[in-house]
Each structure stands twice: as C-alpha cells, then as structure tokens.
C-alpha cells in the first residue's frame, strides 16, 4: 500500500503511529541491553565470589594441614608429618596471593581477607617454623608459647568463619543490586512506553477532533439528503485536505440530487431487470404500512430470501444466463403478488423480499414454503450448486406487531438472521426467526 494513497489525514495519523512505534522499539532495545548488562554483572560478581570462597577454603585447609603436621612432628619426630606441613605452607602462600588480589573487587571483603592472611602468616612465622626447628633439635616449646600458638589458630578459625559469612552477605548485595537495577529499568520502560502512548493519543485526538465534528454534521446532512431533505447546507471546513474535498463533493451532489430527484422518483419504483418492485419502493411502502399496523395493532410479516450459490451460477453459465435466471424467478414470483395484502420486491442482487400485511407467522411460513417449492419446480439447471441439481432459494421469515418500541428495521434484521440460519443448515429451506425450525 502506497503511503500517498492514505491522503493527508491518513499520513498525519500514520506518521504519529510510526514515530511512536519507532520510539518504543528504541526504548525497548535500550532497556533490554541494560537488563542484559545487569544480569552479566551479577553473573560475573557471583562467579568471583565463588572463586573467592574456594580460595578461602583452600587457605584455611592449608594452614590447618600445617598446624596438624607441625604438632605431629613435634610429638612423634616422625618426618612423614613434615610433608603436609611443607605442602600446606606452599598452598597457603599461593592461595593467599590469589585471595588478596581477587578480594580487591570487593572493598568490604578486602580488609577481612588481608586480616585472614596476616593471621595465618603470623602463625607460620612465629610458631610454625620455630616449633619445627625445635623439634628437629629434640626440644619441645614451653607451655606458654604453645598456648599462644593455639590461641592464634583459634583466632584464625574465627576470622575464617566471619569471612565466609561476609562472602554470603556480599552475594546477597550483588543479587539485590541486580534486582534493583532490573526493577528500575522495567519501571522506566513502562513509564516511557505509557508516556509515548499518551503523547500519541493526545496528538491523534487533536487530529481527530478537528475532523470528527464536521464529519458528524456531514453525516447528519447526508442522512437528510437520503430522505430527500436538501435544505441543510454542508458544514464549514477550511483545511485543505481530503475532508474538504469530500464536503465540497457532497455539496455538489446535494445540488444535483435536489434538481433531479423529482424526475428520478417517477422512474425508480420498479427494478429494470426483473420488473418487480425495487428496494426503494419497498422501503417507502414498508414505512407507511408500519405506521398503519402500529396504529391498528395488526401483524406484519417479512419473507427474505436469495438464490443459493448464485455466484457459482454466474461463474459457470455467464452473467447473461444469470440475468435470465433472475427474470425467470421474478416471473414466477409475480404470481404471488396480491396487493395491498402482499407484494414481492427485488431487494438487491439475487436477494428478494415479500411484504405481508396483516398476516401472521403461520400464514407467512406457508407462503414461503409455496414460493420455495415454486422456484425449485422451475428446474433451472445449476451444476455448481452444492445442494441441488436445480436453482434453489434459502428463506427467512419474521413476524412482528409494530409498537413504539420496535423500529421497522428490526423485522429486516430478524428475517435476515433467519435466512442465514437456513444457509447454515444446508440451504433450500425456510426458517422462521428465533426458532430453529426449517422446512424442506
């Protein structure tokens, strides 16, 4: 579809919608990227804390291995205890360097990590190596020094436990930071989308407001013109767009119709192809008879029907044959005219309508079935019909007693619904309104 086919008014509305949609897409993409970044930061932080926890456990285990090896060697002089002591010392040194370096990314943990490493190094320097050296000489450390060593190991354990708790707390901080960022991002996204939509609505409202009032007035005028009241002038509209052209064209139409309607009224009561009354005559007569029936409280019935698969008939046999089909059926229908009690009119295309004055639903149903059989008995060949070898019709019947609370159009809607019920139930049948009862 070309944009210029929408006209000036259409392009204004389309541009407003397009700009709003583009802004929403850009905002959604931007905020999505921000959410992705927040998730990546959280994942990276959690992984770093996992690594930090692993290093802490390795550091702790290394010092415990050293302390166990030192005590075992001091008590037994068994040199096999020295192996875990020296391996633990090497592991402690490597883990401490990595722990200090990795903890720099978390300021709240860095100080505690340095304290943990310092306590471990103090034990190693003040008690670990000196105790091993004494054991090599066959000597034991005095009781006071041993108590001090044990006290330092206990402090190391306490610091280790506090550090692991702090790591868990840092995990919560990282996770909550991510949640806060994502929630803020989503709130901002919703806010901006709502803001853009409101702006778009405001712009479109202003555009529509400038055209709705003249359109409503023009619509009321056109309705008056359809009732042959040409005294109302078209609304004033000064903007040079499609609505201006429409109003001017309607004014031209009003002038032309006003000058020729009298002549047309004398020629349009009958359908040119079938010779039946046409829809205009039917509608005018219906309004008159409706008023009379409402005053005298007698019923009005409508039979609405059309030819089954008429398009297929035209496509198969051609439009000239289709016209002949309509003429043949119309000739048959004229036999059912009994004015003013009833008459048949061509309602449009392959659709016909029968008006019945003062006849109830039972009489209308009986007449409709007679018409259906009469059309079927014409035996007009229809090879593309899905229900019969000959042309058939689907009919809807409606009956009302007019009142002040029922409009004349109501009965047409009722009959139309009944007719489509006939179509839905297999066609070539009669259906009365509000009752799923068909006659075939």
Protein model, in words:
By secondary structure, the protein is α+β, with helices and mostly antiparallel strands. The protein has 10 helices and 6 strands; from the N terminus they run ααααααβααββαβαββ. The radius of gyration is 48 Å and the shape is elongated. The model is unreliable at 436-440 (pLDDT under 50). It starts with 6 loop residues before the first helix and ends with a strand. Strand 5 and strand 6 (438-439) form a beta hairpin. It is 70% helix and 8% strand. The chain has 2 domains: 3-195, Four Helix Bundle (Hemerythrin (Met), subunit A), CATH 1.20.120; 279-439, Reverse transcriptase/Diguanylate cyclase domain (Alpha-Beta Plaits), CATH 3.30.70.270. The chain has a 6-stranded mixed beta sheet, sandwiched between helices. One of its GO terms (molecular function) is diguanylate cyclase activity. InterPro entries: CHASE3, Diguanylate_Cyclase, GGDEF_dom, HAMP_dom, Nucleotide_cyclase, Rev_trsase/Diguanyl_cyclase.
């Amino acid at each position: 579809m070309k944009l210029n086919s929408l006209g000036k008014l259409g392009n204004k509305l389309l541009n407003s919608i397009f700009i709003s949609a583009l802004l929403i897409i850009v905002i959604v993409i931007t905020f999505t990227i921000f959410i992705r970044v927040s998730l990546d930061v959280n994942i990276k932080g959690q992984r770093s804390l996992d690594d930090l926890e692993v290093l802490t456990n390795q550091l702790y285990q290394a010092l415990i291995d050293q302390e166990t090896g030192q005590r075992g060697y001091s008590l037994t002089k068994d040199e096999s205890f020295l192996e875990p002591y020296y391996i633990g010392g090497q592991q402690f040194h490597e883990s401490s360097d990595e722990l200090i370096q990795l903890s720099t990314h978390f300021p709240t943990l860095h100080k505690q990590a340095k304290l943990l490493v310092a306590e471990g190094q103090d034990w190693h320097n003040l008690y670990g190596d000196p105790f091993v050296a004494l054991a090599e000489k066959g000597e034991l450390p005095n009781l006071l020094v041993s108590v001090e060593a044990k006290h330092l190991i206990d402090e190391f354990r306490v610091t280790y436990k506090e550090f692991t708790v702090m790591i868990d707390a840092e995990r919560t901080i990282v996770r909550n930071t991510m949640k806060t960022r994502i929630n803020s991002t989503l709130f901002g996204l919703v806010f901006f989308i709502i803001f853009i939509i409101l702006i778009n609505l405001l712009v479109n409202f202003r555009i529509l407001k400038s055209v709705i009032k003249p359109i409503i007035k023009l619509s009321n005028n056109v309705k008056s013109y359809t009732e042959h009241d040409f005294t109302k002038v078209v609304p004033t509209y000064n903007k040079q767009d499609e609505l201006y052209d429409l109003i001017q064209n309607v004014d031209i139409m009003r002038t032309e119709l006003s000058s020729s309607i009298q002549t047309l009224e004398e020629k349009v009561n009958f359908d040119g192809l079938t010779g039946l009354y046409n829809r205009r005559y039917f509608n005018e007569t219906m309004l008159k008879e409706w008023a009379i029936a409402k005053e005298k409280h007698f019923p009005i019935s409508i039979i609405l029907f059309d030819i089954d698969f008429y398009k297929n008939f035209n496509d198969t046999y051609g439009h000239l044959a289709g016209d002949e089909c309509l003429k043949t059926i119309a000739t048959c229908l004229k036999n059912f005219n009994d004015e003013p009690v009833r008459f048949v009119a061509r309602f449009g295309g392959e659709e016909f309508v029968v008006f019945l004055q003062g006849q109830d639903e039972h009489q209308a149903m009986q007449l409709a079935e007679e018409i259906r059989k009469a059309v079927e008995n014409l035996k007009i060949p229809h090879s593309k019909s899905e229900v019969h070898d000959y042309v058939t019709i689907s009919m809807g019947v409606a009956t009302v007693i007019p009142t002040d609370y029922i409009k004349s159009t109501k009965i047409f809607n009722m009959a139309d619904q009944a007719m489509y019920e006939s179509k839905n139930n297999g066609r070539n049948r009669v259906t009365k309104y509000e009752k799923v009862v068909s006659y075939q």
